[in-house]
Design brief:
By secondary structure, the chain is of the alpha+beta class. The protein contains five helices and twelve strands. It has two domains: 96 residues, Distorted Sandwich (Protein Yojf, Chain: A); 112 residues, 3-Layer(aba) Sandwich (Trna Endonuclease, Chain: A, domain 1), CATH 3.40.1350.10. A seven-stranded antiparallel beta sheet has the order 4-3-2-1-7-6-5, with no helix packed on it. Helix 4 links the parallel strand 11 and strand 12. The longest helix is centred in the C-terminal third of the chain and has 14 residues. The protein is elongated, with a radius of gyration of 21 Å.
């Protein structure tokens, strides 16, 4: 991982156009190729970013940019679309690289871990003909909760949450981008499974071709009291 603290501005073009004016920011370049721009606020969310697969090219500024004080231009180009992130560096205050090694991934709390176990045992909840490949399928950016195959033999990657929000969809998107580079697995489709899926997350998942499955925790545990239900 490379960490750069610099006076910089940025412009994103492609599916949308966005501009970050000149300010001091943290630029993070991860081993998977992603590039993220952070401010000293806004919690954990970057101001702008480019997800892999993408390439980073460092170039010299043109005369007009040099007159504005630009010392280097980073161009981050997505490999599968016209999306581009251009970062103009003015003054670099810090630049360091660190080898973080292989991350073991997020350790699920009791409910999420149990949901994963139950869904692995009841994989048919994803649809008739689904079979389990394995739980916690390790990738270079963390473990996929469940890897399965559907009735046609196609690969399915499942991300499990208690409450499904946009961050969970983004996480699954990163896994899918990586898994689909593997010719032994591709094409890989995604399933976002949760006890509750927020409307914004469902819209984003649908837009990215990711299926959503709502999990009934009590029914999966076999404690659903049908006599207490109105319907």
């Amino acid at each position: 991982m490379r960490l750069v603290v610099a006076q910089c501005s940025a412009r994103y073009t492609g599916r949308l156009t966005a501009h970050l004016p000149l300010a001091t920011r943290l630029v993070v370049v991860k081993a998977d190729g992603s590039v993220l721009l952070h401010s000293d606020g806004g919690s954990y969310k970057p101001l702008n970013w480019m997800s892999p697969p993408c390439t980073l090219r460092v170039g010299e500024p043109d005369d007009a940019a040099r007159e504005r004080g630009v010392t280097a231009v980073w161009t981050v180009q997505h490999a599968k679309s016209d999306d581009r992130l251009e970062i103009e560096l003015h003054e670099v205050l810090h630049d360091s690289s660190h080898d973080l090694g292989v991350d073991p991934g997020l350790v699920k709390d009791g409910v999420e871990a149990h949901l994963q176990q139950l869904l692995a045992e009841q994989i048919a909840l994803l649809g008739d003909g689904h079979t389990l490949v394995r739980r916690e399928y390790m990738t270079a950016i963390g473990p996929v909760d469940i890897l399965a195959r559907d009735a046609t033999g196609a690969t399915v990657a499942v991300e499990i949450k208690r409450r499904g929000d946009i961050d969970g969809v983004e996480q699954l998107t990163r896994y899918l981008e990586l898994l689909n580079r593997d010719p032994l697995l591709a094409p890989v489709r995604g399933v976002f499974a949760a006890q509750e899926i927020k409307p914004q997350a469902r819209v984003l998942a649908t837009d990215r071709g990711i299926a959503c499955v709502v999990l009934d925790y009590d029914a999966m545990r076999g404690v659903d009291d049908v006599d207490s239900r109105l319907f």
